[in-house]
Amino acid sequence: MTRSRVSKILSAVLSYGVVGLVMWLLYRTVGHSDAVADALSSITLVQVLVVSTLGLVYLASMFRPMLYTLPGLSMKQAGVARTASLALANTVPEGGTVATGLTFALYRSWGFGVADSSTSIIAIGIWTNLSRYALMAVGLVVLVAFGSVTGSTVWIAIGACVIVTAGCLSIALVVTHDGFARRIGRVLTRVRRALAKRIKRVEPRDMEQVVADFREHLHTRVRKCWRSLTATMLLSQLLGALVLGVAVRMSGLSQDQVGWDRIVVAFGAMWLAALVAPTPGGLGVAEAALIAVLGVGLPADAQAKLVAAVLLYRFATWFLPIPLGLISYLYWRLTKNWRVPLGQASNERQTFSEDIGNS
User: For residues 82 and 105, what is the distance between their CA atoms, to the nearest angstrom?
Assistant: First the structure.
């Protein structure tokens, strides 16, 4: 058995092992199977339809930012790339990495070059995380300001806000200042050399010019559209929090029990947990994070409502994209007439880029 196959098996065992462990811990936290049964029985078809519709709007809200970062991409292509990659991310271990590879393959099949595709994927990742955790930081500030959290939680909230602010400033400096980007590149060069001494597959490489070239490419790409990109990305993340909030309210939890500030924080905490977890789409870990944040101070008799809200939200944002993504993937595989040889769409992309910059 090859080393790569062993690595894949170990990754799958670890991922689904984490899912099983977290689900068991959630079962212990909820208390007993009656709470889960009550949660499932309380979910109505109307709730499913409303939350699912909002989930689809949230999914579609990511299409426009993709157009900003990859001039020449059509809305149909953005929809296929987004849904197909999300379905893959939600179903396989370390799905985020695999989904990135699929997105790259889709872009390449439509005639986009390596630099354009890579820049778009990385820009979307940067803006998604910055907007998501910026909203989380704002929610934490509101929680602290209005006394909804006390004790050590206050310091955790303050620390999270400081980290988010520092991250935003660092990325802004990398994008806008060549000197700062080169200093980061020199640090990465030293790190890579240290790793190369211990890991044979890692080769020493001068990262200074690599980071500088990437900074220039990214800066050129987002220089004209960064306002529109930021606004649409913030709107997208607010829609994601709205889906969670509507699920919470439709499950019967009031503003006094779970405020909107806590909902926004729970939304960010869920994605933070999913980011570090090896499970597909954060399965298990995301649910645990939502219940942990939303469930603070809730009485025992509200646990079934909380579980129902989490199940509704995850159905709309984790499960529903899977069949949609499968359809998108099959459509891409079977449709050959929109495959474009590399470089053929360059003139169209340039015109589209100018239009975006003027919007």
Answer: 13
Cα atoms found within 13 Å of the Cα of residue 12, Cβ hemisphere only:
7
pLDDT digits (tens, 9 = 90+) for 165-176: 777 777 777 778
DSSP 116-172: HHHHHHHHHHHHHHHHHHHHHHHHHHHHHHTTSS-THHHHHHHHHHHHHHHHHHHHH
Q: Which residues are CB-neighbours of 102 under 8 A, at least 6 positions away?
A: 84, 85, 88, 329
- The answer, as to whether pTM is greater than 0.85, is no
**125 and 116 in contact (C-beta within 8 Å)?**
no
Asked if residues 148 and 259 have their Cβ atoms less than 8 Å apart, the reply is yes
Average pLDDT in the chain: 81
**In whole angstroms, what is the distance from residue 321 CA to residue 324 CA?**
5
CA-nearest of 244, 238, 188, 233 to 214 is 188
Q: Looking at residue 157, what is its pLDDT? A: 65
Residue at token pair 């499970």:
279
DSSP states of 8-72 as a string?
A: HHHHHHHHHHHHHHHHHHHHHHH-SHHHHHHHHHH--HHHHHHHHHHHHHHHHTTHHHHHHHSTT
Which of these, 325, 267, 311, lies nearest to 81 by C-alpha position?
325
Answer yes or no: are the C-beta atoms of 90 and 281 closer than 8 Å: yes
